[in-house]
């Protein structure tokens, strides 16, 4: 892809990675992704904001062929999908200086071997005039590493947000417009990348409220040219509001846990509760993460595997714990053959979840009448908890 005009003096550079199917060797990216860099040209100086994944070094360097001079490379985030080609850019532009947050400087030295004398740190809210283009650097740690910052281009009311407000989506559209598919991809991305930092992002949204923003230009996915849509979505996702939904990840080895899951799904549906079910041997873990964005409750279904929970369930619970969703309640159901410590072991994996644990339901062998009664009690309890929560009690 050639570089493209965003507005006067601002160009999109970067790479569209149509074929990437896994990010960080974990997160499914069914729609590919992009690594966006931006060139801002002032009357006196030029700046490149972020770079691209090292796999696309040639793409970026060919986009820079017609740029004779570069004064600054702004590194908003040291993760290699944005910084990995900065050393090559610095080789071409020997006078260029890297601008980054104080926390980013040693990371650039450690990760990329950039000489410290080529790095200048910028303070929070520091401004830099390029000549008719003024960059304002805003430190925003943990979106998505501790060194991250965003940059506001005052004259164009454009926010360069790096990972924040991104979406893993490859395409030829430079702008998101009002495409609901892109907003959906942004929710998917939020779940996997940003959700653990929900409370910090909420504070950052308030800070951004003070800015007039016409464009949000992230480093993954299209540019938000109607930024209120993604700002409203983030306001909703990061709020404490949850929906009348149960997320139910589960595994069944010989059918007993499956019977319990089927019964509970039906019982919850009869009580007006939406259930999002994930059979973990086939589930898309990205969709599971996305389901956690605003669900009120998680119910985990596991058989006992060598006394503990099934390994696939352990993996899903570990992920949910790491993503720190705003769940309010959790419960565990499942069967066992002769003895079990599955519930205790799963509870120990959920230390990050600020939830009320509801009484587990487990049974030896096939579920019987007492098991179904206990599942009905659990469904009643979830209904009552959700009703009280939605009523604001
Ligand atoms: Fe897109 Fe945290 O890197």
How would you describe what is shown here?
With 393 residues, the protein is an alpha/beta fold. It folds into two domains: 4-237, Ribonuclease Z/Hydroxyacylglutathione hydrolase-like (Metallo-beta-lactamase, Chain A); 246-388, 3-Layer(aba) Sandwich (Rossmann fold). The chain contains twelve helices and 22 strands. Strand 8, helix 4 (104-112) and strand 9 form a beta-alpha-beta unit. Helix 6 packs across helix 7 (228-238). The model has no long low-confidence stretch (mean pLDDT 97). MU-OXO-diiron binds at residues 77, 79, 81-82, 144, 163, 219-220.
For the residues shown, what is the average pLDDT?
97
Category from helices, strands and their pairing = alpha/beta
- Just name the CATH architecture of the largest domain: 4-Layer Sandwich
- Give the ligands present: MU-OXO-diiron
**Full CATH superfamily name of the largest domain:** Ribonuclease Z/Hydroxyacylglutathione hydrolase-like
| CATH class bucket of the largest domain | Alpha Beta
Number of strands: 22
What is the overall number of helices? 12
- What are the segments in which pLDDT stays under 50 over at least 5 consecutive residues? none
What is the radius of gyration computed over CA atoms, rounded to a whole number of angstroms? Answer: 24 Å
Shape: elongated
Q: Please state how the strands of the largest beta sheet are arranged side by side.
A: 1-2-5-6-7-8-9
CATH topology of the largest domain: Metallo-beta-lactamase, Chain A
Overall domain count: 2
Helicity level = 25-40%
Short description:
This protein has 393 residues and is of the alpha/beta class.
């Amino acid at each position: 892809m050639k570089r493209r005009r965003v507005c006067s003096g601002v160009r999109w550079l970067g790479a569209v990675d149509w074929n990437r199917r896994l990010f960080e060797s974990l997160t499914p990216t069914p729609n590919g992704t992009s690594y966006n860099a931006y060139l801002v040209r002032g009357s006196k100086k030029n700046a490149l904001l972020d770079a691209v994944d090292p796999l696309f070094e040639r793409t970026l360097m060919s986009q820079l062929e017609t740029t004779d001079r570069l004064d600054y490379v702004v590194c908003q985030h040291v993760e290699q999908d944005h910084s990995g080609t900065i050393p090559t850019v610095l080789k071409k532009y020997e006078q260029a200086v890297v601008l980054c947050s104080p926390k980013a400087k040693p990371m650039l030295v450690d990760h990329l071997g950039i000489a410290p004398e080529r790095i200048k740190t910028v303070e929070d809210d520091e401004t830099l005039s390029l000549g008719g283009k003024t960059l304002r650097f805003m430190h925003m740690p943990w979106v998505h590493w501790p060194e991250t910052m965003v940059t506001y281009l005052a004259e164009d009311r454009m926010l360069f947000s790096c990972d924040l407000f991104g979406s893993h989506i490859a395409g030829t559209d430079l702008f998101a417009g009002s495409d609901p598919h892109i907003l959906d991809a942004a929710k998917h991305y939020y779940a996997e990348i940003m959700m653990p930092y929900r409370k910090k992002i909420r504070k950052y949204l308030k800070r951004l409220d003070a800015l007039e923003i016409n464009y949000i230009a992230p480093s993954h996915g299209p540019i938000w040219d109607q930024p209120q849509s993604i700002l409203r979505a983030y306001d909703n996702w990061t709020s404490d509001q949850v929906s009348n939904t149960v997320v139910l990840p589960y595994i069944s080895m010989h059918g007993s846990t499956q019977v319990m899951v089927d019964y509970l799904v039906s019982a919850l549906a009869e009580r007006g509760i939406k259930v999002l079910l994930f059979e973990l041997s086939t589930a898309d873990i990205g969709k599971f993460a996305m389901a956690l964005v605003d669900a009120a409750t998680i119910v985990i279904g596991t058989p006992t595997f060598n006394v503990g929970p099934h390994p696939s369930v352990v993996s899903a619970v570990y992920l949910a714990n790491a993503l720190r969703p705003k769940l309010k309640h959790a419960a565990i159901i499942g069967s066992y053959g002769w003895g079990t410590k599955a519930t205790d072991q799963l509870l120990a994996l959920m230390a990050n979840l600020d939830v009320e644990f509801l009484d587990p339901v487990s049974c030896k062998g096939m579920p019987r009448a007492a098991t179904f009664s206990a599942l009905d009690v659990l469904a009643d309890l979830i209904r009552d908890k959700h009703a009280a929560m939605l009523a604001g009690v």
